[in-house]
Design goal:
Strand order of the largest sheet: 3-4-2-5-6-1-7
Bound molecules: adenosine monophosphate
Strand content: 15-25%
CATH class of the largest domain: Alpha Beta
Number of domains: 2
Largest sheet: 7 strands, parallel
Structural class: alpha/beta
CATH topology of the largest domain: Rossmann fold
Oligomer: single chain
C-alpha cells in the first residue's frame, strides 16, 4: 500500500516523501482513512509504531479541507505526558505540514519553563501540543480557550495516568466541546484506559499494533559480566573499541548519571546527562544535540526511556539494569527502531545476575553473557 492510496493530498505527500517514509506503517494504513472519515479512534500502540504520523497527517488534511480558514483558534489539542514528547509531536506537525498552502500554526506548551512566552506565542495557533498541567494554567490565564476544539488527541494516555495526571485530564475533558473527534493512544488497554474510552470515545475504531516485544528481533542484545568497580573502564573500552558515535547510556539514578559524566569527560569523551534535575532548557538542548549526532554519548535515567524517539540509534547501554523487565524493553527499544538494526549492551554485576535472568524470562529471549574477567582494562 502507498500513502497516495490513503487519501492524502499532494502537499502532505511531498512532506511524507521528504521524511523518506516510503510506505505507511500498519497503524497508519488503518488510522489515516479512519481519522479522515471523522471516526473516533482507540489506538493500542507504542512509540516506534509510527502512531504520530498516523494522527498528524489526517488531522492536517482535515484542517486543510475546511472551507473557511479559521485562523486564530485552537481546533486541535494533543495531550502528552512529557515535555520532550510535546516538543517531538509538535515537530512532526511542523515537518509534515511544511508544504500546506494554508499555514497551520502548531505550538508545544509544557511546564517547567516560564509561562509568559508561551502565552504570547499562542496567538494564532491552531494546534496545541501540551502537558496537562500547563494547559490548565494557560486556560486559567485566558491565554487559550478550548471552546472551539474539533479534535482531542490523548497520546500515551497510560503514561499520563501513570504520572498522576488523572485529575488534570478530567478537568480538561470537562472543558472540551461534546461534539468533537477524539483519538486515544495508549501502549496498554488497562482498566483506567477502558474508563477513559467509555467516557470519551464515541463508537471508536480500534487498532491494535503488536507489542514492541515482537520487534526485539531487530535488536542485537549482549551482556558483559563485570565487577562493579570495572564498569566504568569497561564502558569506556566499549565506546572506543566499537567506535560508538551515538550511544545512549542508561543509569538508575541522577547521582550515578552525574558521576558517570564526570568520569567519561576525564577520559576525553564528550558526554552530557539528561535527567529530572536538569533544567528544561538543558534537557531540550542535550536531546537536540544527541539527536543531531553532535553529542556522541548521552547518559539518561528512565525519564526518557519511554516515548522519546531517536531515529536509528545504533547503541543503547544499560550501565545499570532497570528494576522492571518492562523498562528494560523500553530502554532497548530506543535502538533497532524503524527497521534499523541496533545493539543493546548490558553490564551485569554478580548482584544483577538473578534479576537479569528474570528479565530474559519475561521477554522470552536469552541474551549471551560474555565473560570479561581476563580482560585487561588498564588505561581505560
Ligand atoms: P512514532 O511511533 O510515531 O514515534 O514513530 C516512530 C519512528 O518511525 C519515527 O522516527 C518516524 O519518523 C518513523 N516513521 C513513521 N512513519 C514512518 C513510515 N511510514 N516509514 C518510515 N518511517 C516512519
Amino acid at each position: 500500500m502507498s500513502f497516495v492510496s490513503l487519501g492524502l493530498s499532494e502537499p502532505l505527500l511531498k512532506a511524507v516523501a521528504e521524511q523518506k517514509y516510503t510506505n505507511p506503517y500498519p497503524i497508519q494504513e488503518e488510522a489515516i482513512p479512519a481519522i479522515l472519515k471523522g471516526h473516533d479512534l482507540l489506538g493500542i500502540a507504542k512509540t516506534g509504531s509510527g502512531k504520530t504520523a498516523g494522527f498528524v497527517l489526517p488531522i492536517l488534511e482535515r484542517l486543510q479541507r475546511r472551507k473557511t480558514a479559521d485562523n486564530g483558534r485552537v481546533s486541535v489539542l494533543v495531550l502528552v505526558p512529557t515535555r520532550e514528547l510535546a516538543v517531538q509531536v509538535a515537530e512532526v506537525f511542523q515537518a509534515l505540514g511544511a508544504y500546506l498552502p494554508r499555514k497551520v500554526k502548531t505550538l508545544a506548551v509544557f511546564g517547567g519553563v516560564s509561562i509568559n512566552p508561551q502565552m504570547i506565542a499562542l496567538r494564532g495557533v491552531e494546534i496545541v501540543v501540551a502537558t496537562p498541567g500547563r494547559l490548565l494554567d494557560l486556560v486559567a490565564s485566558n491565554a487559550l480557550s478550548l471552546f472551539n476544539l474539533d479534535v482531542l488527541v490523548l497520546d500515551e494516555a497510560d503514561k499520563m495516568l501513570e504520572l498522576g495526571f488523572a485529575d488534570e485530564m478530567n478537568q480538561i475533558f470537562e472543558m472540551v466541546p461534546k461534539k468533537r473527534q477524539t483519538l486515544l493512544f495508549s501502549a496498554t488497554l488497562k482498566d483506567s484506559i477502558q474508563d477513559i474510552r467509555e467516557h470519551l470515545l464515541h463508537n471508536p475504531i480500534k487498532i491494535e499494533i503488536a507489542d514492541e516485544l515482537q520487534n526485539l528481533d531487530l535488536i542485537k542484545q549482549v551482556a558483559y559480566r563485570i565487577d562493579p568497580e570495572r564498569k566504568g573502564p569497561l564502558l569506556r573500552y566499549l565506546i572506543r573499541e566499537k567506535k560508538m558515535r551515538q550511544v545512549l547510556v542508561f543509569v538508575s539514578s541522577t547521582r550515578t548519571a552525574d558521576n558517570l559524566v564526570v568520569k567519561l569527560r576525564k577520559n576525553g569523551i564528550q558526554v552530557e546527562a539528561i535527567h529530572g534535575d536538569k533544567s528544561q532548557g538543558a534537557r531540550t538542548e542535550t536531546l537536540r544535540k544527541f539527536k543531531a549526532g553532535t553529542l556522541p554519548v548521552m547518559v539518561a535515567t528512565d525519564l526518557i526511556s519511554r516515548g522519546i524517539d531517536i531515529e536509528r540509534l545504533p547503541y543503547v547501554v544499560n550501565y545499570e539494569l532497570p528494576r522492571s523487565p518492562k523498562d528494560y524493553v523500553h530502554r532497548i527499544g530506543r535502538t533497532g527502531r524503524a527497521e534499523a538494526e541496533g545493539e543493546a549492551i548490558s553490564l551485569i554485576t554478580p548482584d544483577d545476575e538473578h534479576h537479569f535472568r528474570i528479565i530474559q524470562k519475561k521477554m522470552r529471549k536469552r541474551v549471551e553473557l560474555i565473560e570479561t574477567e581476563d580482560w585487561s582494562l588498564s588505561g581505560y
